[in-house]
Write a structure and sequence with these properties.
The chain is of the alpha/beta class. It has one domain: Rossmann fold (3-Layer(aba) Sandwich), CATH 3.40.50.300. The chain is built from 9 helices and 8 strands. The longest helix is centred in the N-terminal third of the chain and has 19 residues. The two termini are 13 Å apart.
């Protein structure tokens, strides 16, 4: 029987990391919706430069009209047939992902793609509005969170490992701003579904979070 696990939460809470591990242990397909929004942001950035355009809703709607985003089982991301796995992980694209997510046309397009992916088998999907909007009938819903300080520390370490320039205080400010944008946007705001299990990972290891999700899933 197909099963669906939805994992929501703010930026830097560890959703992708633990979801990948849980998917591997359960034999589920992992769907990273954040990568999809990053791919849209990457394309919008490129089109802005090429056309000297502004990020209006009309402009973004035109960009995503025929966009093609594919995620494969090896966690590679393809945008319009081109692999962009590394390109979408820059701080600039991360900021852009939050900007495009506020547009209804983008959320509608990606929600359709995400629902199509979810019917192909048992999946674990992470994002901001999976349990509330994308897959409200998911079998298990998790709302994974952590303190701003801890999430900033994790992001700082991640960027350092990837050799990106990183400023801890700046990252903290950006995460707080992202939280505000995500939770206050008019369309599909970040929110815990009423039937979701709240899991605070501030003082937990990755393995402890994975173990708890596996326990809930089983």
């Amino acid at each position: 029987m197909k099963k669906i696990i939805a994992v929501d939460g703010p930026a830097g809470a560890g959703k992708s990391t633990v979801s990948k591990i849980v998917a591997a242990r359960l034999g589920y397909t992992y769907i990273d919706t954040g990568a999809m929004y990053r791919a849209v942001a990457l394309k919008c950035n490129a089109q802005c430069v090429m056309r000297n355009a502004q990020w209006t809703e009309e402009f973004v709607a035109e960009v995503v009209q025929d966009i093609e985003i594919k995620l494969d089982t090896s966690e590679k991301v393809f945008l319009d047939g081109r692999e962009v796995t590394k390109e979408i992980r820059t701080p600039e694209v991360s900021r852009g992902a939050s900007d495009v997510a506020k547009f209804g046309v983008v959320r509608k397009k990606l929600t359709e793609l995400q629902r199509e992916m979810a019917v192909q088998g048992s999946v674990i999907m992470d994002g901001r509005d999976i349990g509330t909007q994308v897959l409200p009938n998911a079998d298990l819903k998790i709302f994974l969170t952590a303190s701003v300080e801890e999430r900033a520390r994790r992001r700082f370490e991640e960027l350092k490992e990837k050799n990106f320039a990183a400023d801890f205080e700046q990252i903290k400010k950006e995460i707080s701003l992202r939280d505000k944008q995500d939770s206050e946007r008019e369309i599909a705001p970040l929110a815990k579904a009423e039937d979701a299990v709240l899991l605070d990972s501030t003082s937990l290891t990755i393995e402890q979070v994975v173990t708890e999700i596996l326990r809930l899933a089983r």
